[in-house]
Amino acid sequence: MTSFWSIWVIVLTLACLALILGLLLWNLKNYAGVEEGESCGHEFDGIEELNNPLPKWWTYMFFATFVWSVYYLAAYPGLGNFAGFLNWTSSNQGVKSMEESKAAIEAAKESGNWVQLDKEVEYAQERFGPIFEAFAKQDVVTLAKDEKALEIGQRLFAQNCAQCHGSDARGGMGFPNLTDNDWLYGGKPDQIKETLLNGRVAAMPGWKDALGEQGIDEMTAYVLSLSGRKVNQKDADAGKAKFAMCAACHGMDGKGSVAHNLPFGAPDLTDNIWLYGGSKRAVEETLNHGRAGVMPAWKEILGEDKVHLLTAYVYSLSQNNQ
């Protein structure tokens, strides 16, 4: 925050503390004009007010709370831009990449700053790291049948993957269903692990400029016909003649990268599984503008041991449906 607002917060906070201390001290004195324990002269429905001081334990509790608040504001961030004498922060602020995060962690260690998130991650690694290391020594197929491993893998999935693929892993528009046997880059354990470790970047180009409006209509008809849809046969035949520009990724038969052992991640166009929708309008949009979905890499975020366990869980999802 700016210096003005920082000063505003500090002054307002200290003024409130001073007021609270003043109220505590003021209530320690007898201003009723009568001795303690005697009537103040007020009665309501037979209830008479007596001049009784606050209980000692209550007074001590108020003073202890006040002392703690002063210590807390001095030790931790809270008074405007004042960082506190403990140099404590909840996390490294402003980082935008893993490289910046790692650099911030090292800088905090060298300067002696206490970054709460860094300490929690370090503690978790010390406590749970050996568990993940033990699982990493087993192959994925074995882990996919281990209930304990799958339980941990499911938690990793819920924390890191469910935002896109859904808690049930069935995906959604633009996000693959992981419970079926349709894989853009292959569903073998080593292929799934490679996807998780290094991520994937789709590269479906837009063909609007190359094909034109009529060409898009024709290509759409042919693509839809590959999955058995009823289309205008004249348009489909014209689209088939142009399909050579798509065959480099999808294959001349349209069965996609996996069927032809290609690394592009191009989907099978002959089935009824559509990542971005299989309606005529959706296919036209894909052909016009292309698709550029991104699957993030998890190697630096989770580490290879956790990715190995996550691979086993993802692999198990499709095996249960075979």
From TrEMBL:
MF-aspect GO terms: electron transfer activity; heme binding; iron ion binding; oxidoreductase activity
Entry's Gene Ontology BP terms: oxidative phosphorylation; proton transmembrane transport
Binding site for heme c 1: 161, 164-165, 295
Cofactor: heme c
Bound cofactor: record note: Binds 2 heme C groups per subunit.
Pathway the protein contributes to: Energy metabolism; oxidative phosphorylation
Keyword set, alphabetical order: Cell inner membrane, Cell membrane, Electron transport, Heme, Hydrogen ion transport, Ion transport, Iron, Membrane, Metal-binding, Oxidoreductase, Repeat, Respiratory chain, Transmembrane, Transmembrane helix, Transport
GO cellular component, one term: plasma membrane
Compartments where located: Cell inner membrane
Residue ranges of domain Cytochrome c in the record: 148-227, 234-318
Keyword Transcription regulation: no
SUPFAM superfamilies: Cytochrome c
Subunit-level organization: Component of the cbb3-type cytochrome c oxidase.
Family per record: Belongs to the CcoP / FixP family.
Physiological role: C-type cytochrome. Part of the cbb3-type cytochrome c oxidase complex.
Name by which UniProt lists this protein: Cbb3-type cytochrome c oxidase subunit
Gene: ccoP
